[in-house]
Amino acid sequence: MDFGIGFLSNNVMLPIIDLFYTIVPSYGLAIVALTLIIRLALYPLSAGQIRNMRKMRIVQPVMQKRMAEIKEKYKDDPKKQQEEMMKTQQEFGNPLAGCLPLLLQMPVLLALFATLRGSPFAGVNYSVNLQVLPAEQIERIQPQAFTTSPQNIYVSDGEHIKVAAILPGGSKMAVGEKTRIEYQTLEGKPFQQVLAEHPETKLIPEWKIIKGEDRVKIDAQGNVEALQAGDVTIQGTIPGLAADRGFLFIDALGRVGAIDPDGAIHWDIVSMVVFFGISLYVSQVLSGQNSTNANPSQDTVNKITPVIFSGMFLFFPLPAGVLMYMVIGNVFQTLQTYILSREPLPEDVQKILDAQEKETQAAQKSIPFEPKSSKKKTTG
Question: Which of 57, 69, 236, 274 could disulfide-pair with 126, CB 3.0 to 4.6 Å?
Answer without folding.
Answer: 236
